[in-house]
Amino acid sequence: MGLELYLDLLSASCRAVYIFVKKNSIPFDFQFVDLLKGHHHSKEYIEINPLKKLPSLKDGRFILSESVAILFYLCRKYSTPSHWYPPDLHTRARVDEFMAWQHTAIQLPMSRILWIKMLIPRITGEEVPAEKTEQMLTEVRTNMQLFEEKFLQDKMFITGDHISLADLVALVEMMQPMGGNYNVFLNSSRLAEWRMRVELAIGSGLFWEAHDRLMKLAEWDCSTLDPMVKEKICELLQKFR
Amino acid sequence: MGLELYLDLLSQPCRAVYIFAKKNGIPFELRPVELLKGQHHSEAFAQVNPLKKVPALKDGDFTLAESVAILLYLSRKYEVPDHWYPQDLQARARVDEYLAWQHTTLRSSCTRAMWQKMMSPVFLGEQVPAETLVSTLAELDRCLQLLEDKFLKDQDFLAGPHISVADLVAITELMHPVSAGCQIFKSRPKLAAWRQRVEAEVGKDLFQEAHAVVLQAKDLPPADTSIKEKLKPSVQVLLR
């Protein structure tokens, strides 16, 4: 058995890994773990990853979780072109800096927008209080500004002239609210241009293929939602009250 | 000007960077940034780190934020012993995995536990609702269980048989709730044994030196009104 990747492309972290392996023609087996059906909580999957999160990588007997760790592993093992994770001390540090910052500054808030604007109302039938929504959106706007001013600045990509893992991870996460029809690129032409550059560097075909499930989320029949997952979501709503 | 490290040892990631630099004999100028005086919000500090957080590094014209990035930068630049961030593909992946996982889990729950249980009542004079604290401590417990079961397992250190930056990042986190009086090692002999090993590797003196500030935080005098006003916005999120 070769390289296996446990993925659901609804998750931004999974999209980053998927796009990376496809772009670099790394052969792998796509193991679909359906988040909407709660399959990440299944006994089989817990054996792969007791953290019950996606993505996971299985390479022979070696199992690895956390998309950032997986991306670094793949870069090294498959000797991908150096622009993805440049060897220069300072440039590499910039990628590391973004990869560390994004967990709490980008991924979490972007994911929350999708929950607040679409998933929670769709599943529970209730809206999240406007005050909380506004708080969330303010946080996102602030962090997008920081991203633009500190990480991107006037460069083509985060590290300079070439796409790196940082751009890939940033973009797939910023796409997450699109599943709920919320576009975070509207307020800045500089960010919108960067978004287009990253999409083109990846290849539009691959980019939109990876985002298909997310973009179709609005069509999803949530009556098929796993009851356990639905319960967790209702609990989540309580936190927003 | 040589390497400058902008630190407040009250902060967990600052302690990890401090211990790492000292342990590896990396020469640096310590630039104190007092969080409890709101110094991280100053214009001057924003020049070093526009993200307004500690730790931050300045190496000539090069500035760098994020403790994980700083630790890796120092590892590479000063060519520290391999075990800190091993060359071996799978061993390195284990370290990367821990460093990625901890941001939204252990880090978050350790910071909240310390602020909700101690800093808020002692320093800000505000009690946090009982259910909030209970929920935070339950989350901390969950993270500690994962730390033991998924990362440490039956190994001596988090990424294998040798200490790495993952252990420094983890141990400095755990000392946060410890400073607030949480007895996290009491019912966890495996974690307690790992802590002893990490302390021994780091060196007792350096470990104690790095933790002096946080362990004395419970004796801080209450903040005056102007400080409370200054800190409130950034601290609010930790009290939920």
Automatic annotation (TrEMBL), chain A:
Keyword Transcription: no
Recorded catalytic activity of this chain's protein: RX + glutathione = an S-substituted glutathione + a halide anion + H(+)
InterPro entries assigned to the protein according to its UniProt record, in alphabetical order: Glutathione-S-Trfase_C-like, Glutathione-S-Trfase_C_sf, Glutathione_S-Trfase, Glutathione_S-Trfase_N, GST_C_Theta, GST_N_Theta, GST_Theta, Thioredoxin-like_sf
Domain annotation GST C-terminal: ranges: 88-218
Annotated compartments: Cytoplasm
Domain of life: Eukaryota
This protein's UniProt keywords: Cytoplasm, Transferase
Annotated signal sequence range: none
Protein's name according to its UniProt entry: Glutathione S-transferase theta-4
TrEMBL record, chain B:
Ranges of residues in domain GST C-terminal: 88-234
Enzyme class: transferase
Source superkingdom: Eukaryota
InterPro entries linked: Glutathione-S-Trfase_C-like, Glutathione-S-Trfase_C_sf, Glutathione_S-Trfase, Glutathione_S-Trfase_N, GST_C, GST_C_Theta, GST_N_Theta, GST_Theta
Swiss-Prot/TrEMBL GO biological process terms: glutathione metabolic process
GO MF, one annotated term: glutathione transferase activity
Keyword list, A-Z: Cytoplasm, Transferase
Keyword Cytoplasm on entry: yes
Protein name: glutathione transferase
